[in-house]
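Quick one:
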Amino acid sequence: MAIAKRGLILGATAAAVATVTLTGAGIHLSQSKAFFQSSPKELVDEVWQLIDRNYVDATFNQTDWQAVRADYLGRNYTDQRQAYGAIREMLKKLQDPYTRFMDPQEFANMQVDTSGELTGVGIQITQDEKTKEIVVVAPIEGTPAFDAGMRPKDVILKIDGQSTAGMELNEAVNKIRGKAGSQVTLSVRRGDQQLDVPLTRSRIEIHPVRYSRHTEPDGPVGYIRLTQFSANSAAEMGQAIKALEAQNVTGYILDLRSNPGGLLYSSIDIARMWLSDGTIVSTVNRQGVVDAETANHRALTKKPLVVLVDGGSASASEILSGALQDNHRAVLVGTRTFGKGLVQSVRSLADGSGLAVTVAKYLTPSGRDINKHGIDPDIQAELTEQQREFLAADRERIGTSVDPQYAKALTALQSQVREARTTRHP
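Output:
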């Protein structure tokens, strides 16, 4: 089975269907839906076959995958519900929260058109591989969760009073999601604190890029904040860079804080806007086949660049920041990134359900495997609890002089600008 590269998604976002930020790009539809609806056992086998051919780990988590097939095809299924339960049980053997089955409703909820509109509370979530806790990757800027002050690494303990202990990720997603205007309360653990966060679900139109020109003593600076890597992110990024170039900025601060990732090719397209040459990312499948993506000599600017990252910068954010760091194109400022280095392919199944399969891991240009570790910034800049609360109280403060991490990034950028001027005019 050939995998459509433009349909590949990245780890942290792949698990985060509570906010439905993925598109249906690259999803292949079958024409035999009616047959599988009357033969649920065939659906079980279809999932097994997809895992058998494409899963990144050839040992299937040290599982005898052929024996698994014999076991699950030896059972009788009276309806789709039983088949769905068997599939989820089968996938648990891989112990991979990013390889997951979605019933038709869950799969439909995951797909978003290219307008970037979604309904939900605006958080990306994942399931910790060891503790099985439901963990926030990042809130999406401009959503109810963001405005309520939810943060990366918040652990969701309860959803409307129901404990998440032992709860599957898909079940948590379904309980968080709901109609626009309805309410949900998330009880979270943040460090030593336990908080109840009431949220009103809404329909949100997301524009992943916002930008502005900041007047500074060493010349105007272009500030670009990218909140996710969706189907329209690259186009909006290109527009932002061109607009700021026309305003004669001296350099750029690219803000990837709390950006949980998204589409693989979106990150590659955006990297090419900043890099003239060099490797961007390499993906490695279970056969060890390395597929490297490179710059194409079409960078939109060569001016100095600083990138802001934090613990909520995940997957596609890590590809972009890793490419810029390894190619010495940018200085990274902030804190260590999330650490998700896995790639999924999303497949439509014959009855309208869907399957996300981890098909590869990715490496930065220097060969770093950042999964579970993340990317360390060049300049460490941590926010205090008081500073976090100050910025959360008014998101218009983010990316301004009262934002301590931005201030540190600005200092680093001005140093680069002065150095570039000295180099040009000795």
